[in-house]
Design a protein that fits this description.
4 strands; two-stranded antiparallel sheet; two-stranded antiparallel ribbon; about 120 residues; alpha+beta
């Protein structure tokens, strides 16, 4: 699922602008998607563990509701389990778009163009 959206000036060049892209391809078991597995979070789409992760930084999930989070088996410093999200959840994708519309870039299917000229 990839979406594109352009904000600001529609000038023919990109001079003085920043472009951001979003690919909504992260998935998790139980998210309601057809694939129903850990999509793009780990190598070979296996359950994420410390040896199979395909991301460098854990996303800030502090604004996510519990129905958007999917627990892994990876332990956290506070004794819990690491949570991840799925871009199949409408509420999650909607939030990503809202963040990008106010200039906060996160992961999402979108291109935003800001005109700084």
């Amino acid at each position: 699922m990839i979406f594109f959206f352009l904000i600001s000036s529609l000038k023919a060049d990109i001079s003085g602008k920043l472009l951001f892209g979003y690919q909504g391809w992260f998935g998790a078991p139980g998210d309601g998607s057809d694939w129903n597995y850990w999509k793009h979070w780990s190598f070979q789409n296996v359950p994420p563990d410390c040896n199979s992760l395909t991301f460098d930084f854990h996303p800030d999930l502090s604004e996510f509701d519990s129905d958007e989070l999917f627990e892994t088996e990876i332990p956290t410093n506070n004794g819990g389990k690491l949570n991840l999200y799925s871009a199949y959840k409408y509420k999650t994708v909607r939030r990503h778009f809202e963040w990008m519309q106010v200039g906060i870039m996160y992961e999402s299917p979108l291109i935003i163009c800001y005109d700084f000229s």
